[in-house]
Queue: 2 jobs
Job 1
Amino acid sequence: VTATVTPDVDALRAALTVAPGTRVDVAAVDSHATPAFDGDKAAGKAALTSLNDELSALQERLYAQHRAGIANRALLLVLQGMDTSGKGGIVRHVVGAVDPQGVDITGFRAPTDEERANGFLWRIRRALPPEGHIGVFDRSHYEDVLVVRVDGLVPEEEWQARYDLINDFEAEVAAGGTVVVKVMLHISRDEQRARLAERLDRPDKHWKYNPGDIDARRRWDDYMAAYSDALSRCSTAAAPWYVVPADRKWYARLAVAALLTAALRDLDPQWPLADFDIEEERARLAAS
Ligand code: AMP
Ligand code: MG
């Protein structure tokens, strides 16, 4: 068996994109599949290691070019998915591969009274990554058209108006120089049952278990409908959505690493040129 070591990140990206203007039904997407990767788990893990090296080098250049004042770009990864879909694992195994100095991770929970009073995008704007950084949202403004819609937390007119508000907001973020990569980690209902059962069986996982997860699980079909609308209405050229099959954790991690690598390759960050005379500094060093 020949292991596929360097995966084709462009093929992965193409296979996972929700094409802007098209309708996606996430319930019909096979969560166990491994689109655009034909290796097994061992090959997938090897491929992740090689992508993580490239990702780390690209991130260092992104950070360096900002520090040198030659470009003001940033990258934002938005992670969405049902409970146990593996958002935390992406943060550890993919985002964890880059220098933590250049990464800002924000988890979004039910809003505080102050956040609620300021409009749903207020807390999101405040958490956007600064120039030169990679920002990661573990849940996001999409909760305001997901849990809020499924649980009827605001009247329908209010959440219906949010899709356009989100598109305008993300277009503005992209125009400001931030590349936006939005990922739905897509697991099956059966896979979620198995992962919740494991959380109940293992004392070291009890801290991750939340009885409220079962309430969301009971509304599975409503969530899939809400996800399908959010992804269909808010996948834009400026901020595309990707559906990543996530029943196999190794594939989901590889796919997200590929999406980040592809985005950073496009951004093509450059090492800053020295703003001092190298020969002169060599001479000064030799004489010191
Ligand atoms: P977790 O990410 O599993 O720790 O849980 C965070 C919880 O916060 C989830 O149940 C989300 O549905 C909830 N949450 C996040 N954003 C919002 C929001 N805008 N409105 C209501 N609930 C939210
Ligand atoms: Mg949870």
Job 2
Amino acid sequence: MKEERILVTGAAGFVGRHMARELASVGHHVIPSCRTHGPAEAHILDITDRAAVDQLVASIQPDAVVHLAGLSFVPDAAKNPDLAIDVNVNGTIHLLRACQTHVPGARVLVVTSAEVYGLQPRPARIHETAPLAPSNIYGLTKATADLATLRWAADHGLHAMTARPQNHLGPGQSHRFVSSGFAERIARRSLAPDPLPLKRGNLESTRNFTDVRDVVRAYRLILDHGQAGQAYNVASPQTTRIGDLLETLFDIAGVPAEHEPHEPYFRPTTHPPTLAIDRLQIELGWQPTIPLRQTLDDLYAATLQHLRDTGAAG
Ligand code: A2R
């Protein structure tokens, strides 16, 4: 494969770090950009700064771009809609415009979210052609960024595509997300036993989880072989009950599964829609390869190691 120079925005984030490794593993040259800090070679770029985005794309002339910079946590977007719109919508448009101007032949993958479809289950599997009906501000910003990307492909001939992932998990994710949060609290208990049960919210919701390493492989396949102007759902064939996730992590840790409901953590039960992933599977030959148990094993091991390394246990 020809070595390409690929700009990865949001490179210091959870997915960004895995993405850089995935691209490098097949021989690409990764050019990371980060908001504040990152790898030594990273370009510091605030995606909301239109002139800075334009200047960076003009100077590095990437062959391709993976756009991961964004406000990624649903509650953050709800708390600060202006910022969410600025980062997720305007930031994406700055990048599309800069690519159109300076590297019109580049392939651009914009990562949005399955939240573009809304969280309510629908009777049938959701294909990429389904109407977008976000049910929160985060989904609204991602739906807008997604439509803008497809618009840029249609109107300006940019080889731009979108990926609409459901939940991903794996080593390195912020503890604000459910699986990493559970892993961190259980790992602490394994290092310093706690006589009180672990406090948790509603266990009855389900989510569709894919290992982040399978997710970034999907992104690479889309970037390399995806069709301009198309969206790609990224999801696992099965959903998982949050309670089962918790029980599995207790089992992996070898810590007694003692937990109790805690009112402030409670959210209503929700179930994700079922996404059709035929486009990714048939067109691009992608399959998830890492079973959930393996992902949780790796997540737990990395969490425990991190607590030991940083002396943060106890
Ligand atoms: O805020 P920081 O320093 O943690 O940087 C985050 C970065 N980011 C920005 N980069 C440039 N300009 C901004 N104004 C800006 N605001 C935030 O995006 C962080 O390093 C990165 C997002 O990484 P995570 O929060 O770890 O999200 P994750 O799971 O890697 O998701 C990547 C993308 C996001 O667009 C999600 O919405 C989507 O995949 O699902």
